[in-house]
Amino acid sequence: MESIWDKFSKMYHEKSQVCLLTWAYGIISVAVIVVAGLIALINQSVGVAILIIPLIAVAAMCANVMVWSLIRFVIESHEAKEKAKQRAVKQAAKQNSKK
Fold first, then answer.
1. Smallest Cα–Cα separation from 48: which of 56, 57, 39?
2. Is residue 41 within 8 Å of residue 47, measured between CB atoms?
3. What kind and span of H or E run contains 38?
């Protein structure tokens, strides 16, 4: 069975940084929620105050995913336009060479 570290290593080598970033935010959020719960057993107000950290982590994760998606969209649409231009130039060159 593949360990969690092997999966993370595989994702890293496959260049899926967004997935790794999402996992990191998730792990940090869960760990802080558990710690906040334990602290809340001793002092409720401090435990509740610590819960702001996972909230910030989730907000940052959402912002990172949205920005990454926008960047990918812009890059991929630009690449598609460039490929279409190159195909048009090749087709025009073929038609000119046939004449």
1. 39
2. yes
3. helix 17-42
> Is residue 40 within 8 Å of residue 51, measured between CB atoms?
no
Give the residue extent of every domain in the chain.
4-98
Q: What are 1-15's pLDDT values in tens digits? A: 677 667 767 766 776
Q: What is the pLDDT of residues 30-85, one digit of tens each?
A: 899 999 999 999 999 998 888 888 888 888 888 888 888 888 788 888 888 888 88
Distance CA 20, CA 25 (A): 9
Between the alpha carbon of residue 86 and those of residues 72, 83, 91, the distances in Å are 21, 5, 9
